[in-house]
Amino acid sequence: MSIFAKPIIETILPRDVKRIHLDFAYKLNDGHFGARKVWRNYLPRLKYHNPAISMSVNRTQNQSGPATLTVFFASPSDPAPNTSSPAPSSSTTQNTPTSDHAPFERTVTIEMKHRHESEILSELLSLTKASPVEPSAEEEAELEKLAEEERQGGLDRAKNAAYTEQKRQEKALLDQARGAVGDS
After folding, report:
1. Cβ(71)–Cβ(127) under 8 Å?
2. What does the pLDDT look like over 123-144, one tens digit per residue?
3. For the chain, is the Cβ count within 10 Å smaller at the N or the C terminus?
4. What is the C-alpha separation between 51 and 2, in angstroms, rounded?
5. Radius of gyration over alpha carbons of the chain, in Å?
């Protein structure tokens, strides 16, 4: 499997993950592209499946600065369940964690600078030991329907391309015949 393959992001993070914080520059120059992709495309999906985990973003003007993703872990015996009321989703401009967070047992930082978003997410998912969300029977049926529509679309595109090519060849023959008649 390529490291650039689309990662499975519909996941439930374990109970000991309490907070995720991204820190990167506003512009994507100098290696901040992967971090920006994670923020724009994957962080909302992670938040959707993990509403109790606080996720914050700090975007700086410093293009040469680091691009990091920090995961804050609490002890696994923490009595607060992961399905409690949603944590506030906040974007901060400070480098310090907000005061409403309990002390963390450990933190792990993933360096995102000059890395592809799928590589960053693969490391995040393996680091946290996240479990994928299994699709329901209804979602499975919808996925099968979409796959069938895509297959049928491919057949229709091929048929349409053959028809267009046939019409182009007929027009070329007619133009050639008209040119031969006009020359005589």
Report:
1. yes
2. 998 899 888 888 788 988 998 9
3. C
4. 30
5. 26
